[in-house]
Amino acid sequence: MGTEMSELSRRIVKAVLMSMGEDSAEKFYESDFSNCHGYLRINSYSPPGSSTVDGKEVEGLGMHTDMSCVTIVCQDEIGGLQVRSREGKWMDINPCADTLVVNVGDLMHAWSNGRLRSSEHRVVLKRNVSRFSVAFFWCFEDEKVISSPDEVVGEGGARIYNPFVCREYLKFRESSERGKFDKVGFTVKDFAGDLKQ
Ligand SMILES: O=C(O)CCC(=O)C(=O)O
Ligand SMILES: [Fe+2]
């Protein structure tokens, strides 16, 4: 399964690079994304209990962004995955047979100088049943220095993040309670600085 997911992730990254309209998508793929690796996480959500009875939603997984380039999610038929729009509105990502969900993660966000936005998402449990999902995180190698290439930043554009080592960012997120979940503002911006502001 790992091999198929890796192959799918490679194809997704290539398609995303092409969508950025870069003539040099192939070049960037080779120079920046060819050493990516992935890991799989199985998420199991227990039935939330009586708190759902009065129609209240229970957060199964708080709002967060993924620490990946892209994440592929396979959710079961229960539903509850939501993504936050730019305006801050929560939108349901309804389960659909034979359909996977792809999130852009923080590493791609930083690499693309914010052109590709890291998806802010969460899981709400609306029904009193168990829920399962499988997430495959496709990430840069730990030692990679993430710095948006000049061509991506564009002529006259400004780099909005300081270059950073991937491992250091993962450590930053993992070692900090705030960084893990819930505080979506506490991500690349807080770690590598927003040079624009
Ligand atoms: O359970 C889901 O549908 C999403 C899981 C998720 O966002 C994650 O594992 O990072
Ligand atoms: Fe996630």
UniProtKB/TrEMBL annotation:
InterPro entries per UniProt: IPNS-like_FE2OG_OXY (IPR044861), IPNS-like_sf (IPR027443), Iron_ascorbate_oxido_reductase (IPR050231), Oxoglu/Fe-dep_dioxygenase_dom (IPR005123)
SUPFAM superfamilies listed in its UniProt record: Clavaminate synthase-like
Every Fe2OG dioxygenase domain range: 36-141
Domain of life according to the entry: Eukaryota
Gene3D superfamilies: B-lactam Antibiotic, Isopenicillin N Synthase, Chain
Protein name: GIBBERELLIN 20-OXIDASE-LIKE PROTEIN
Source organism: Salix viminalis (Common osier)
